[in-house]
Amino acid sequence: METRMYPSGESSYLGPHELYFKNLSKQTKKLMEKNGNNRKLRVCVATCNRADYSKLAPIMFGIKTEPEFFELDVVVLGSHLIDDYGNTYRMIEQDDFDINTRLHTIVRGEDEAAMVESVGLALVKLPDVLNRLKPDIMIVHGDRFDALALATSAALMNIRILHIEGGEVSGTIDDSIRHAITKLAHYHVCCTRSAEQHLISMCEDHDRILLAGCPSYDKLLSAKNKDYMSIIRMWLGDDVKSKDYIVALQHPVTTDIKHSIKMFELTLDALISFNKRTLVLFPNIDAGSKEMVRVMRKKGIEHHPNFRAVKHVPFDQFIQLVAHAGCMIGNSSCGVREVGAFGTPVINLGTRQIGRETGENVLHVRDADTQDKILQALHLQFGKQYPCSKIYGDGNAVPRILKFLKSIDLQEPLQKKFCFPPVKENISQDIDHILETLSALAVDLGGTNLRVAIVSMKGEIVKKYTQFNPKTYEERINLILQMCVEAAAEAVKLNCRILGVGISTGGRVNPREGIVLHSTKLIQEWNSVDLRTPLSDTLHLPVWVDNDGNCAALAERKFGQGKGLENFVTLITGTGIGGGIIHQHELIHGSSFCAAELGHLVVSLNGPDCSCGSHGCIEAYASGMALQREAKKLHDEDLLLVEGMSVPKDEAVGALHLIQAAKLGNAKAQSILRTAGTALGLGVVNILHTMNPSLVILSGVLASHYIHIVKDVIRQQALSSVQDVDVVVSDLVDPALLGAASMVLDYTTRRIY
């Protein structure tokens, strides 16, 4: 079958969401019967150019697959119908849509006056079309001057307007046009939480805003498994390899045309010097585009052996080209929005997208005023691979939008209502008045178990999955991927929106690269392991990785007793001994990512051997492994069990048996626990003298058994100036999972060059 965004008959999302659509159809039919409204909703989709069609096409395919609910009318205008811009209306016909009306609305000239005249021409022609079609609702996308004409016509003719991608902030005149359309529109579909908040701040009705994500992401997130090499060869030549070419797409900035033309000239000079095969797309039809084309021809780009200059690339093929490019450069919104789905490096030039939310793959060159600066940015970015970003969507936008359309009550008054300040605290709601819960996937790699959880912004563990941790790398990484994929699918059913994946693991971790450098002996085959790349590639989500002790500290900072404190230390007492240090509200990693290895503080020069190769460490005394070792010695000498105790033959003797014996009065067990607690207490005294934190938090299964001994040691051994520092037992049930989740939930990034 031909692969499209949403092919006729069976759309790409109907497989995974078939049950959703069946249930939704039943609910909607009941709603229509209740309202006495069995009429189909007549939807007019108007598309002006290649860019907005890539966002509107998934919605159009979705509408087409539900003829029992919708009638679709397609209106084509703007640069779609101009030969110099590729006659892109043909791709609409190739997608098997019937074009009801073609309107030639562009006045050539490619300057400011031509843009104004084009809006006027569209306003003259549109009333006849809308009178003939009589749509119930018109879908308008984005921020183009053509879209402003569409929204103005529909509003004045009392036709309801659904605006896609309102509330966003970029640059140039586009911002003003986008916000003007927002004020004309009756319903809003936005892509990001920030855009949603902007719409609310603009006094739009909360109940008429849907946070759906970008419709194009429904296509993007399933696009990378195709035969992309044939597409690369077709557009760039047979000798070009994946990740070894550049895609360039730069448009004029209508509020500073002269500077944008100069910047385009510098960009082309830098690309020529960089000497990589480059696909250059012609600019859009905004004022200044004619001059930019002249610059291309002056520099001989169309005939240069390293360049391929094209007017249009079909969207299906374009996303394959940017997904496998070594870099994308320019000022197109595609670079800061869609390309993030693949982790492709992007260089964003100038101010045209200055307010856009971006992933860490985007390097901004705000003042692109020299060739050297652009060239340096190319050297910094080319060939890198970043985590895939889902800032603008999770691949489920179209089902949400169709559900939103079905909820529109045509009996409601047409007049808009504005929600003037003060703005309510609650944010916009989904159709069923149920907020999708912002959540993280948290992974905890322990010595025994592998756990994955869906964790909400408030620290609630919505659902948890547990499996035994396999012994080999291959089995372990496959199990992690399998559990995360299952959890991500379950999150959709639980109404949770997954923002990213956080991983807590034992050993030394480079959190910048997402690599486990050296693991503990408890986790085998786990050295020099890149965890970020396979998870990011599979889930299309950003991924963070850190040591389990650091994660425990992060959990306390966000959800526990460290919340709001500037300086505190967390000590984990479990199978091993670990910890995390928060200093001036930030986690300390150290120069070689070895900070907070608190279990290996030496408290005795002649102490027992430690797993690290030294001896006398806290872990050699107070860890679960150390207590198990001492329990086995007592048991082998028949000195462990006391009255009221028994150990089944098939059960290994462990730390809990030692604790039980101590509670039942076993003097030797009590002595061992006292020694272990004293060693831990001496370690805490060293921490107090070194870090001088305002709080020490003991975490883990053994913490409650040590707390009183630790406090006694502090009273006896610590300087008077630190004896008032409080030592408490953590009240968090799953600090490793919560800490892993907090890396995701707290993360924001802005990269400025």
From TrEMBL:
Catalytic residues (UniProt): D548
Tree of life domain: Eukaryota
Keyword Cytoplasm: yes
EC number(s) given by UniProt: 2.7.1.60, 3.2.1.183
Binding site for an N-acyl-D-mannosamine: R508, T520, D548, E597, H600, E619
One function term, GO molecular function aspect: UDP-N-acetylglucosamine 2-epimerase activity
Organism, scientific name: Oryctolagus cuniculus
Gene Ontology BP annotations: UDP-N-acetylglucosamine metabolic process
Pfam families associated with the record: Epimerase_2, ROK
Alphabetized PANTHER family for the sequence: BIFUNCTIONAL UDP-N-ACETYLGLUCOSAMINE 2-EPIMERASE_N-ACETYLMANNOSAMINE KINASE, ROK (REPRESSOR, ORF, KINASE) FAMILY
Catalytic activity: an N-acyl-D-mannosamine + ATP = an N-acyl-D-mannosamine 6-phosphate + ADP + H(+); UDP-N-acetyl-alpha-D-glucosamine + H2O = aldehydo-N-acetyl-D-mannosamine + UDP + H(+)
Gene3D superfamilies to which the protein is assigned, alphabetical: 3.30.420.40, Glycogen Phosphorylase B
Ranges for domain UDP-N-acetylglucosamine 2-epimerase: 68-406
InterPro entries noted in UniProt: ATPase_NBD, ROK, UDP-GlcNAc_Epase, UDP_GlcNAc_Epimerase_2_dom
Cellular component per GO, a single term: cytosol
Homology family: In the C-terminal section; belongs to the ROK (NagC/XylR) family. In the N-terminal section; belongs to the UDP-N-acetylglucosamine 2-epimerase family.
Protein name as it appears in the record: Bifunctional UDP-N-acetylglucosamine 2-epimerase/N-acetylmannosamine kinase
Stored NCBIfam families: NeuC_NnaA
Primary localisation category: cytoplasm
Oligomer and partners: Homodimer. Homotetramer. Homohexamer. The hexameric form exhibits both enzyme activities, whereas the dimeric form only catalyzes the phosphorylation of N-acyl-D-mannosamine.
Record: residues binding Zn(2+): H600, C610, C612, C617
Gene assigned in the entry: GNE
Subcellular location, record wording: Cytoplasm, Cytosol
Keywords carried by this UniProt record: Allosteric enzyme, ATP-binding, Cytoplasm, Hydrolase, Kinase, Metal-binding, Multifunctional enzyme, Nucleotide-binding, Phosphoprotein, Transferase, Zinc
